[in-house]
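FORM 7B - TANDEM STRUCTURE REPORT

SECTION 1: FIRST PROTEIN
SEQUENCE AND TOKENS:
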Amino acid sequence: PISDSVLVMAANRLSSPEPLSNIEQWVENSALVPAMDVADVAYNDDRSGRTLDAIGPEVKSVWTQILFKAAAAFNLELDSVFYDLTSIYFEGDYKQSLLISHGYSRDGKPDKKQINLALNCSQKDFIPLWYKLFKGKTNDQTTVLDNMAQLDKLTKELPSKPGKALTVIGDRLMLNDEIAVSYGHLGIKFIGTIDDCKAQQELIRFIPDEILKSSPLNYKGRAKDSYYGVVLPHVFSHHETTNGKEGKHFILESAAHVFFSESKDRRDKKSFDKFLKSSGRFNYFRNFTGAHIE
């Protein structure tokens, strides 16, 4: 039965993960399988492949059932979630694949084709909540709205609802005005970096250095340097567009946290100094500004 094959593969993944081609040998040498109530048949890679093909259409349903049972059994805290993408590269052409393609490589292998895997994990205990495969050439930011809708649906279906509003944490590629406004419509909180140089500059210029450096934070990094931070109001603004025509205008009032790191400041100055020297512009810049770069 398929259920027996699923049980054998699950036992392998949990105890001693092997490629599908090695499952049969693992079964023969395992002391675990004889103790399991499964049929005495050849659990080779062909059987495993047929099993995966059979359960493929139901995998999302199976996943949510496992998540719901685990959340109830272990009282998991799922109200704060990390969202990010990673890439998995492949050897070969895969010309017929609908997903495998060239794209931005996080593996440092731009010559290899890949797929992108989007994953949500809880902030506490790093429990995976939801995942999805995307084409290898998919831009990170284009996945956020779809992921947001899936998370909203998933958390509303949880048997035990989170005690707090859902918060999604992402990097600078996971936030823009449209995304922020959409989070607001769903009542989802978010933490991310503003991916807008002009908006960043305006926020930073608004704060005098003496005010920023008079607001120390309790956090200490590995270098034991000091960190400073202030909170400012920030407004996200988005115009809906339909058939090239501008529609409704939405705004979302939020809070922007501006941070200053002493170690980051030193690294930036050092990198800038190195760049100027390597480009032959160091003396020109120093004389032009009347200041020495430390």
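SECTION 2: SECOND PROTEIN
SEQUENCE AND TOKENS:
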Amino acid sequence: QSGRRRVRLDTVSVRAASRPPVVLAAPTEAVLEPSGSILVAESGQSRLARIDPATGRDTLVTRIVQPFGVVLTPSGVLYSTSESRVVRVESGGSTTTIADAGEDVGPLALDSSGNLYFSTVSRIFRIESGTGAVTHYAGTGIRGGRGDGGPALEAELDAPHGLVVGPDGALYVADTGNHRVRRIDPATRVITAFAAAVGPAGLALGPGGALYVAERDGQRVSRIDPTGAKTVVAGTGVRGSSGDGGRAVAAQVDEPFDVVPAPGGELFIVESGVSGGIRHIDASGVIRTIRRR
């Protein structure tokens, strides 16, 4: 096994109308589909599931062994990860391997040119659009935190759990073990510390270039503006599940693992803790639970 922290098989059961609770097991990354449904990778159930945010009902998309990352292209092509592999999910639910890292693969990210990025416990790779060539993009293969201000290929990483590409092509990395978000310049490939974060996991871009960070170990979700100003948008810093119907900043969250912006200023939070689930924050900042035990 690699040094990547395995997602615990804690389970979060979910109540949907007119049927027994469904268990959402070890959710990791999620993506919003054009229809408004949420597509979630569930490592504990070895599946990708589609969840209706209005009813909480889920639909099986496909079975994948221990998926972690998930990304959807503008043309509707779905990619995920399965143990050491990056896979493309075909229309019938079958998968095609497009890369094999030889060790556990974590998050995925897509840039505007269609290049796909993925990380292992201490390195980041890019799959070139069109050719499918896999190139080493960052990390030395040794876990650590050194290297800010220098070439990304000479920098150490420690179990990155989130990736996202900014509007300028910069790659942002949730360097979980180093408790910071790092930025890799697209032109120079120099890596720098962008922001401090407590055990960051999922990353997402919001309106105006804002960066959302799911701080799994910090029990909160934060927004970082292009100016660098950081604002908490959900969570008190204390792990829990209270607060539905009130302001998200006064609510507890349980190990937020990913954050998914939606149109109109809304947000979805994927919680990986034992009492967590999927939470929704409306444009006024009020939080509610879509799924939970």
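SECTION 3: OBSERVATIONS ON SECOND PROTEIN
The CA atoms of residues 247 and 286 lie 5 Å apart.
The two ends are 30 Å apart (CA to CA).

SECTION 4: SIGNATURE
Preparer initials: ____
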